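hey team, just a heads up i'm posting the complex here instead of the shared drive bc the drive is being weird again. everything in one block, sequence lines first with there labels, then the predicted structure for the whole assembly after. its two chains so it's a bit long, scroll down
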Amino acid sequence: MATTPTYNWQMPDPTDFVTNLPADFETFGDAVDATVSQIETKLDVITTEGDLVVGDASGDPVRVPIGTAGQVLASDGDTVEWVTATSGGMQLIATATPSAATTVSFTSIPTNFKMLLLVSDSVFQSVGLENSFRVRLNNDSGNNYFNFGFRVQAGGTPGFGNSNNDAIGSSFNDAFVPQSNTTDTTLNRTSNSELWIYNADQTTGRKRYTQTSINHNGSNFSGQIAGGGIYTGTSAISQIDLIRNDTQTITGTIRLYGFL
Amino acid sequence: MNNIKHEVIVSTGEILEREMTAEELAQDKLDREAAAAEAANKKAEIAAKEAARQALLDKLGITADEAKLLLG
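-- predicted structure starts here --
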């Protein structure tokens, strides 16, 4: 009796009568069907988007569910697993693209990042002159932010100051989104800023931050702002909000990066 | 819609465009009032400094540009 070389499915013999072929092919088809079914059963372990299929110790396929946000796939020498990376540099973890929004919030930020970087790219406000958006951490509106900052602007008098208030920066000297043009989206006529938050994963100590910004207020002069300070809250950073000083709205792109 | 919050839920990647809650609107109002007070204080401080500077210039009988020259 002839068989296939790998799965030993029964095949018609060259000497079989033609009248035997239907039965021969039925036997052959049943064998193929049974084999494919066995393969499908073994592979049918995926239940959820992001699942991976890997082999177990017996060589059978098993499901590895998707890890949580920010986790990476690692090997323990025997199999693979999703783990919280302890190193690995910078990751883009979120992008906000507000369009005439009152406020912008990043919530449920994983608290394993040692450092966070908030970057505004071509941001402008519906009313730019003397308006600004500052940054608040963990929805903490207490006077727990000790700021310093200065502003240099073409054609204007440099300003500097320090403050103890309810968000990062003051609306006057060192806001994350300071005075900015209202409609011109040309790169050099908008607000482009960086805010670094250090020790973001710490649950006992204070957090330090620094920020810089280059902006244009719509009157054809640009300004540079630099500042920094200390946030005295002790919880790891899980939320970042942009808060306004008046009734203006905000448009643009704001990215949040994390460093492990 | 008015008073829109653009929220990114980082852990899931979900992005929400939603109306602000009553609590968030109340905080927004407090933030704006505090910022207005800060700006008013700052402007008053700048105005007071400017007035003092002008008074000194008047007393010395020189202009602001002459004072800059004097101070190098």
